[in-house]
User: Which sequence fits this backbone?
């Protein structure tokens, strides 16, 4: 920016001397005028520096000449500094009120007092007028003018004032009563009351008071019932939460309803209220009518629809739209009220056009006459019998009422089916069927029975057709019934009403056989049914003979078990004893072959003894069962581990036992089951590997059960015994649970092949099952399923 002369900058420098000193290090490297110019340009305000122009003869003040200007000022004036510096104020602001400006400048020069003012001026380059805040300060024999654009603030103030004027107008001219309240707090900051600051005309009308009389008073003074209405607590809540509350409030003393809106305002509230008493009375009357109407419809068992008629331009029926439906319709259709209201009949039920409803609707539209009909509606998945009535409601609506008669129709159909079924059963039943009617004497005693019904089976057995039997006297035509007890049974059933069942041995009137007879009272008579069980009776006698034979067989088996446990073991013990004596006394004198023969004999005898013991154990499991009682498997497993302690020690095995349940069973058998499984797990271990056996239990999922247990409906425990032994091929799974079945030679692993058969029999005796999973060389897991109860 060009400078007029160094004198002007000197004056400026004196004004900003405190700042000038701080920047001395910089000014040593940069000319002072350049630095001062940059300092002025950094100001956000426009800055103009003028020197006075006086008459050369009189010294009178005539004008001001611009000697310096910063960038902000040149941008506002919209002229470059080169064209401004050196110009007179009267020339620069030719379009502005120069005389007024010069007068203010002269006043500052004369008094030395700064002058500030706000002015509205049109930019020199034209455009809309803008507001500026201007400050004039004396600078030696000149002036410094600073100015800031305050248009935005001025416009905001004007808008705020306009808004305030608008709010004031709304407040005083509102159709709602409005009050402004200020909170009154005690020393602890708790709101104790509210002061009425302002109230509009409508509010005064509602309260029947004058604004000047109540403004400035407290709420409790003006409305003593404030607390009882709950309004005071609501006002406190609004002040505390800063949330607007809207409510409907009834004032009994005024007998009026008001809708009240309370909004927070500083430390107080604005309350707007409107009298809605007339509307509320109408609503209450309508609600009472509506509740009555809905109550009637809700209590009715009939379906009811109010439908709007939809016509085409020619006036013909096109569809009907649901306006109202009763609760019974929702119950019958399974749809919601929202699905009905506003929807057309053919949209929800397109089958209506093919039903009897549509002709009835068309008749209503054409004639206005009510329609009554019965319909079996079988569309959209519905199958309903209905008794229907459609009545016009004015010219554009109808009321459709129906009664669901499904139960009646179903009862009629079931009665027909029952009658047909009964006829089919009676006529085709292999059971003889007779209905007897009691015949009484004058004193009321039963003296005979008359046949009133007979089926074909009875006709076949008696040799008389149904027509021949009907009306026949029992004792006249079948007198033997008095001796075989049949007549007495009939009398007893009629007199006591208690049913009877007996095996009737009938040997008369060409009838010979055993009959399973049932007597059931039927009115003043008896329904007698019987079934020829002659063959069954013979089979029963044969079965009794077989059962006796089975008892004898079981006794023989028990005798065999005794022999196996005592008599057969005794020779084996002697063979083993004599073999031991031979080895001890003559081993040195016997040839090597003889000693080998003795060893083989001893081994065979020991295997025979083991086989007999296992066979005896298997037999006892089959024929002996102890009473079922709760068995703690943890205690059972402790006993098994004690019995197998030597085998576990010799094999160096590790046994891990988890939590085991308590379940109903035979403790001895369950101990045999787990002892066999654990013994096998230790026996069939891999050479050079420490045997590891893990025993765990959990509830079995229904889908995990073997097929034979899935249909029992019982809950089962799943108990697994897993090892890391030699395993086996699962194709032999069924074979390993059979008696005397072995997968390995007796030279490799000792045993009789009975142990796993025992485990299966024990599991089955307890209503469970056993299975296994394995692969060769990968160990085996035996899984036992036992019922929880």
Assistant:
């Amino acid at each position: 920016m060009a400078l007029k002369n160094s004198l002007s900058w000197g004056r400026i420098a004196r004004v900003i001397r405190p700042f000038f000193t701080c920047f001395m290090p910089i000014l040593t490297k940069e000319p002072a005028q350049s630095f001062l110019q940059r300092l002025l340009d950094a100001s956000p305000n426009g800055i103009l520096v003028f020197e006075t122009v006086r008459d050369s003869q009189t010294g009178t003040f005539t004008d001001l000449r611009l000697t310096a200007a910063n960038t902000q000022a040149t941008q506002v004036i919209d002229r470059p500094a080169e064209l401004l510096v050196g110009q007179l104020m009267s020339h620069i602001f030719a379009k502005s009120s120069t005389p007024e400006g010069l007068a203010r400048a002269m006043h500052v020069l004369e008094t030395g007092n700064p002058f500030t003012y706000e002015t509205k001026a049109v930019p020199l380059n034209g455009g809309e007028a803008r507001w500026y805040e201007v400050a004039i300060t004396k600078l030696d024999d000149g002036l410094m003018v600073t100015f800031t654009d305050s248009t935005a603030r001025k416009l905001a103030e004007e808008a705020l004032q306009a808004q305030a004027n608008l709010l004031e107008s709304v407040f005083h001219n509102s159709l709602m009563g409005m009050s402004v309240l200020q909170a009154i707090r005690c020393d602890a900051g708790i709101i104790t009351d509210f002061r009425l600051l302002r109230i509009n005309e409508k509010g005064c009308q509602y309260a029947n008071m004058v604004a000047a009389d109540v403004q400035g008073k407290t709420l409790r003074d003006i409305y003593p019932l404030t607390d009882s209405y709950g309004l005071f607590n609501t006002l406190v809540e609004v002040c505390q939460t800063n949330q607007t509350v809207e409510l409907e409030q009834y004032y009994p003393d005024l007998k009026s309803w008001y809708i009240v809106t309370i909004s927070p305002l500083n430390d107080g509230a604005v309350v707007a209220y409107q009298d809605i008493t007339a509307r509320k009375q109408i609503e209450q009357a309508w609600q009472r009518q509506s509740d009555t109407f809905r109550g009637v419809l809700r209590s009715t068992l009939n379906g009811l629809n109010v439908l709007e008629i939809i016509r085409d331009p020619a006036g013909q029926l096109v569809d009907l739209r649901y306006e109202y439906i009763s609760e019974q319709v929702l119950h019958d259709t399974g749809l919601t009220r929202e699905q009905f209201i506003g929807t057309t009949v053919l949209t929800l039920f397109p089958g209506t056009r093919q039903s009897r409803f549509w002709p009835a609707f068309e008749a209503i539209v054409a004639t206005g006459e009510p329609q009554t009909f019965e319909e079996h509606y079988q569309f959209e998945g519905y199958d309903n019998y209905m008794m229907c009535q459609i009545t016009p409601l004015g010219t554009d609506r109808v009321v459709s009422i129906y009664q669901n008669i499904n139960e009646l129709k179903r009862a009629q159909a079931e009665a027909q089916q029952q009658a047909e079924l009964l006829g089919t059963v009676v006529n085709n039943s292999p059971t003889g069927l007779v209905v007897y009617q009691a015949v009484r004497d004058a004193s009321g005693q039963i003296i005979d029975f008359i046949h009133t019904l007979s089926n074909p089976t009875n006709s076949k057995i008696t040799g008389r057709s149904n027509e021949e039997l009907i009306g026949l006297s029992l004792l006249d035509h079948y007198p033997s019934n008095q001796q075989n007890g049949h007549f007495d049974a009939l009398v007893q059933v009629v007199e006591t009403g208690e049913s009877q069942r007996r095996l009737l041995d009938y040997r008369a009137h060409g009838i010979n056989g055993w009959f399973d007879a049932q007597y059931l009272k039927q009115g003043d008579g008896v329904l007698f049914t019987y079934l020829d069980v002659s063959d069954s009776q013979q089979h029963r006698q044969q079965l009794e003979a077989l059962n006796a034979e089975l008892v004898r067989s079981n006794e023989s088996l028990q005798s065999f078990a005794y022999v196996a446990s005592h008599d057969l073991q005794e020779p084996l013990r002697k063979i083993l004893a004599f073999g031991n004596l031979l080895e001890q006394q003559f081993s040195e004198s016997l040839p090597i072959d003889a000693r080998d023969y003795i060893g083989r004999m001893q081994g065979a005898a020991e295997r025979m003894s083991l086989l007999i013991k296992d066979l005896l154990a298997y037999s006892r499991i089959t024929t002996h069962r102890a009473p079922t009682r709760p068995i703690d498997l943890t205690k059972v497993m402790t006993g098994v581990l004690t019995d197998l302690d030597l085998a576990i020690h010799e094999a160096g095995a590790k046994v891990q036992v988890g939590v085991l349940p308590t379940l109903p069973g035979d403790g001895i058998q369950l101990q045999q089951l787990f002892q066999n499984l654990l013994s096998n797990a230790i026996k069939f271990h891999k050479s050079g590997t420490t045997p590891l056996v893990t025993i765990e239990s959990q509830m079995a999922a229904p889908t995990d059960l073997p097929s034979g247990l899935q249909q029992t409906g019982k809950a089962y425990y799943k108990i697994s015994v897993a090892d890391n032994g030699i395993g086996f091929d699962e194709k032999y799974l069924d074979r390993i649970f059979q008696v005397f079945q072995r997968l390995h030679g007796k030279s490799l692993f000792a045993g009789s092949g009975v142990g796993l058969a025992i485990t299966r029999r024990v599991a089955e005796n307890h209503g469970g099952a056993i299975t296994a999973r394995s692969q060769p060389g990968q160990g085996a897991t035996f899984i036992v399923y036992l019922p929880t109860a």
About this structure: The chain has 32 helices and 27 strands. The longest helix spans residues 534-565. The CA atoms of residues 484 and 506 lie 7 Å apart.
